[in-house]
Automatic annotation (TrEMBL):
Keywords: Signal. GO terms for biological process: protein stabilization. GO terms for cellular component: cytosol. Residues 1-20 form the signal peptide. InterPro entries: Chaperone_Skp, Skp_dom_sf. Belongs to the Skp family. Residues 71-86 have a biased composition (Basic and acidic residues). Pfam families: OmpH. The keyword rRNA-binding does not apply. This is Molecular chaperone Skp. GO terms for molecular function: unfolded protein binding. It comes from Chryseobacterium hagamense. Residues 67-86 are annotated as: Disordered.
Length: 167
């Protein structure tokens, strides 16, 4: 019985020493790395151009709607009640079309953004994994996170940028 308790104590000491092994943790400036990637810069430029085009289309339609509102408001006293009612319905339909264009533009932008950023995120994650394995890091955490109370220890940003070939 005494041998069993000594054996148990020895096993517990070995397990506790293994658990006390320090974890290797590094930080990474994810935003800085992403902003340095040429793929991200190109995606941002393409997305801005897409958004500008959609906003111009919506503005053109809205301006046409505003012109009709002004015209119909000025002509309303000279028109019959039925004509004014038909014009109000036409304006309501135009307003609904503008809202639908806006909603579709937002959905299209989100879909285009997801498609553009997916390969960039994959490339970054692959580089982070390579650096973590090569450097023996157990964890690489985002240095921009507000969850950190203290940021000491190694910074993997330079190694990830090197792996991606960016500066």
């Amino acid at each position: 019985m005494k041998k069993l308790s000594v054996l148990f104590a020895a096993v517990m000491m070995v397990v506790s020493v293994g658990m006390a092994k320090a974890q290797k943790i590094a930080t990474l400036d994810v935003i800085g790395v992403l902003n340095a990637m040429p793929e991200k810069k190109k995606a941002d430029t393409d997305l801005k151009a897409f958004l500008d085009t959609k906003q111009a289309e919506i503005k053109k339609k809205a301006d046409a709607g505003q012109a009709k509102v002004k015209q119909y408001t000025e002509e309303a006293p000279k028109k019959t009640a039925d004509e004014n009612k038909a014009r109000e319905a036409e304006l309501a339909k135009m307003q609904e079309e503008i809202q639908q264009m806006n909603d579709k533009a937002q959905k299209d932008f989100v879909a285009k953004q997801d498609a553009a950023y997916e390969p960039i995120e994959k490339k970054l994650n692959d580089a982070v994994s390579k650096v973590a394995k090569a450097s023996g890091y157990d964890y690489i955490m985002d240095a921009n996170s507000a969850a950190f109370v203290f940021k000491g220890g190694p910074d993997a940003t330079a190694a990830v940028k090197k792996e991606l070939g960016v500066q």
